[in-house]
Every structure is written in C-alpha cells, then in structure tokens.
C-alpha cells in the first residue's frame, strides 16, 4: 500500500469519510423515526388492536431481530470487513416501507419490523465500528457522540415529519415514503462512496499483541466477567428498555389526552431530539472527564424524566419529561460505546461492539414486555413508573460496579 493510501488514525485526517458515515447513520436512524409515532395509532385505528401486549409485538420482534443481527454484524465485520455488511444491511431495508404501506394485516407490520431490526443491527453496528476504527483512541467519545447524535437527531426529525404527514395525509402511505427515500439514498452512498476501515483497526492494534480470546470468551467478558464491559451492557439494556417502552407507550398515553397527531408527533420528537443533540457534547466531555460519571448520572436523570412523564397529564408536563429523559440518555449513550472501545482490543472490536449491542437491544424486547404486560394489568402510567424504578436501580449498579475506563488510554 502506498504512503498516500495508508490508513491514518484521527478525526481530522479522516474527516471526509467520517462525515459520510455520520450521514449514513442519520439515514439509519431515520428508518426507525418514520414509524415510531405512527405504528401504535395504525394498530388501533386500522387493525382494531386494543391489547397493549399484542400491540407491542412489533417492538419485541424488532428488538430480537436487531439483537441477532448485532452479533453477526460484529463477528462478520471482523472477518470479512465492514463495508460488505453495511451494504447487505441496506439491501434488507428496501422492502420495509413498502410492506408498511401495503400491509393488509398486522402480521405484515410485524414482518416488516423483523426486517427493520436486521437492517438496524447490521448498519448501525457497522457504522459504529467504522467510526471507532477511524477516530483512534484519543477522541473516541467525540466520535461516538457524533455518530449517535446523527442517528437520534434523525429519529427525532423523521418522527416529527412523519407525524405531520400523518396529520395532513393520513397514516398511510405518506409517512413511510420517507423511509423508502432514506433506504435508496443510503444504499447508493454505501456502495459508491464508503470505504473499508478494517485497515485502520489493524493499524491501531499493531503495537499490542491481541489476547488469545475466542468469540465465546469475548461474549462472556462483555456479558458477565469483565466489570466495565458487562456493566455497560446492563446499563445499555435498561436504556433501550426505556426507549422501547416509550416507543409503544408514549403515543398511546399522549392520545389518551385527546392530543392531535401533530401534537403527538412533536412530543415524540422531543425525546430523541434532546438525546441526539446532547450527544454532540457528552461524548466529547467524556474524553476529558471520564466515562463513569456520565453513565451514573445519566441513568439517574432518565429515572427522573420517566417520573415526570408518569406524574404529568398534559402536553407541557409530557414535553418536560421527554426532554429530561432525552438529556439522561444523551449522557449515557455515546459514553457506553466509548467504554467498549476503551477496553476491547482493536482486533476484537467488532465482536465486542456486537455483543454489547446484543444486550443493549434486548432492551427493546424488555421494554415491549414491561410496557405491554404492566399497561394491560395496571395502565399506561404504571408502565412508565416501572421503567423509572428500573432506571434508578441501574444507576446504583453502575456506581458500585463500573470502574473508570478512559484512564486506561
């Protein structure tokens, strides 16, 4: 390889490719945002579904599919490279909005969300790993902040746009045309302009002998044995429990107060908007002040936000609660990914990120179960209160078990 094409680490020297991957990840987030404010209402109004547990099936299926895809994305990207996995993920996304537009039954919606989960697992995991590859160790928190900010700002913007389209043109097909456009554009960018980054990971790991760890060892370390990695996985699961629960519960809770589709779209955009934009600052700040304080405080702030949502009964209170919940998530989300990058060896990075995202995205399944079962038994408010308690317990566990990882660099 010539000197002009040899990989170099750092955000500045890789600015063009890094920025392209930020854009691609924004489109990944937009695929979720197209449906978040719309599907719970579609289930009730077009398919006549009333049981909360049954309505939330699509969230559970999405989460399980994403969990499995995360594992394969990490393992296969370490073996075959990052770019091929990214392209496959976008090919799988293409039929999703079409299925949602044409769905004659709820089964089609569930099947579309299975494909969406695979798409999210392959594409989001891969863009995370590629950005860690490019950034190198010094600015890992900033890199993850930019990545997650793009993804969840796009979730927020697309949720808002989908809500407006639904209010003006109906629940179908207009909101899902956004997702179709996103998938086509992202596939083209990934095929033509995205470059492979596995060489950057090899460069970072060249001075350190990789530990002799099998895929089973990596799974056990990230799941149970290594304190920082396994605590990050547990905190990530609780974080996405909150996200999955909010995805199913919040639109129905807001609709119970006779809010319009437009108002529901605004409220649903607040949470990921604060979450997304906040990560522009929290990821970089964790490079300076360490990871653990942001994760501990972030889980506690999420609990506070959920308490405000559960206690409130109108637009203003729900908007405040959603904003606080988003702020807590912004403190946690890029920082947890930075912890995985801090502790794992570059040669095993894809697998470590994949295992972390397996546990984190099991939170969607947990959120669907907690939200659906508790809501059916005790009401929508009770489901939100239960998530508040779980988040508070997670903050205590992080404080007691996780050690600071950034100092290791």
From TrEMBL:
<feature type="transmembrane region" description="Helical">
    <location>
        <begin position="384"/>
        <end position="403"/>
    </location>
</feature>
<keyword id="KW-1003">Cell membrane</keyword>
<dbReference type="InterPro" id="IPR020846">
    <property type="entry name" value="MFS_dom"/>
</dbReference>
<feature type="transmembrane region" description="Helical">
    <location>
        <begin position="173"/>
        <end position="194"/>
    </location>
</feature>
<protein>
    <submittedName>
        <fullName>MFS family permease</fullName>
    </submittedName>
</protein>
<feature type="transmembrane region" description="Helical">
    <location>
        <begin position="318"/>
        <end position="340"/>
    </location>
</feature>
<feature type="transmembrane region" description="Helical">
    <location>
        <begin position="361"/>
        <end position="378"/>
    </location>
</feature>
<keyword id="KW-0812">Transmembrane</keyword>
<feature type="transmembrane region" description="Helical">
    <location>
        <begin position="52"/>
        <end position="73"/>
    </location>
</feature>
<dbReference type="InterPro" id="IPR036259">
    <property type="entry name" value="MFS_trans_sf"/>
</dbReference>
<keyword id="KW-1133">Transmembrane helix</keyword>
<feature type="domain" description="Major facilitator superfamily (MFS) profile">
    <location>
        <begin position="14"/>
        <end position="406"/>
    </location>
</feature>
<dbReference type="Pfam" id="PF07690">
    <property type="entry name" value="MFS_1"/>
</dbReference>
<feature type="transmembrane region" description="Helical">
    <location>
        <begin position="294"/>
        <end position="312"/>
    </location>
</feature>
<keyword id="KW-0813">Transport</keyword>
<dbReference type="InterPro" id="IPR011701">
    <property type="entry name" value="MFS"/>
</dbReference>
<feature type="transmembrane region" description="Helical">
    <location>
        <begin position="261"/>
        <end position="282"/>
    </location>
</feature>
<keyword id="KW-0472">Membrane</keyword>
<feature type="transmembrane region" description="Helical">
    <location>
        <begin position="85"/>
        <end position="102"/>
    </location>
</feature>
<dbReference type="InterPro" id="IPR050171">
    <property type="entry name" value="MFS_Transporters"/>
</dbReference>
<feature type="transmembrane region" description="Helical">
    <location>
        <begin position="12"/>
        <end position="32"/>
    </location>
</feature>
<feature type="transmembrane region" description="Helical">
    <location>
        <begin position="149"/>
        <end position="167"/>
    </location>
</feature>
<dbReference type="InterPro" id="IPR005829">
    <property type="entry name" value="Sugar_transporter_CS"/>
</dbReference>
């Amino acid at each position: 390889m010539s000197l002009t094409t040899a990989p170099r680490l750092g955000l500045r020297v890789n600015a063009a490719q890094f920025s392209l991957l930020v854009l691609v990840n924004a489109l990944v987030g937009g695929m979720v945002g197209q449906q978040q404010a719309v599907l719970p209402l579609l289930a009730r109004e077009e398919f006549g579904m009333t049981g909360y547990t049954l309505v939330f099936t699509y969230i559970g299926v999405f989460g399980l599919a994403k969990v499995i895809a995360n594992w394969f994305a990490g393992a296969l990207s370490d073996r075959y490279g990052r770019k091929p996995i990214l392209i496959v993920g976008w090919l799988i996304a293409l039929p999703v909005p079409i299925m949602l537009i044409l769905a004659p039954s709820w089964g089609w919606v569930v099947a579309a969300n299975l494909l969406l989960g695979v798409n999210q697992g392959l594409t989001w995991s891969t863009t995370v790993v590629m950005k860690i590859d490019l950034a190198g160790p010094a600015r890992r928190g900033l890199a993850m902040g930019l990545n997650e900010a793009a993804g969840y700002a796009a979730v927020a913007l697309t949720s808002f746009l989908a809500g407006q389209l639904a209010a003006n043109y109906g629940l179908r097909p207009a909101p899902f045309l956004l997702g179709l456009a996103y998938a086509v554009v992202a596939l083209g960018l990934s095929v033509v302009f995205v470059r492979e980054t596995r060489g950057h990971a090899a460069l970072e790991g060249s001075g350190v002998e990789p530990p002799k760890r099998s895929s089973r060892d990596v799974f056990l370390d990230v799941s149970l044995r290594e304190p920082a990695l396994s605590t990050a996985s547990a905190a990530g699961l609780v974080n996405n429990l909150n996200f999955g629960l909010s995805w199913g519960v919040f639109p129905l809770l807001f609709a119970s107060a006779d809010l319009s589709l437009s108002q529901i779209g605004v409220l649903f955009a607040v949470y990921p908007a604060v979450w997304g934009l906040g990560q522009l600052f929290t990821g970089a700040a964790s490079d300076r002040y360490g990871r653990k304080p942001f994760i501990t405080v972030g889980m506690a702030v999420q609990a506070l936000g959920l308490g405000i949502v559960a206690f409130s009964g109108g637009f203003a209170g729900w908007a405040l609660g959603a904003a606080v919940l988003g702020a807590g998530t912004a403190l946690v989300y890029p920082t947890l990914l930075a912890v995985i990058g801090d502790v794992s060896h570059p040669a095993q990075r894809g697998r470590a990120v994949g295992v972390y995202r397996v546990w984190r995205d099991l939170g969607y399944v947990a959120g669907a179960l907690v939200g659906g079962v508790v809501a059916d038994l005790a009401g929508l408010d009770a489901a939100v209160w239960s998530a508040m308690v779980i988040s508070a317990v997670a903050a205590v566990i992080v404080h007691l078990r996780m050690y600071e990882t950034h100092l290791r660099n």
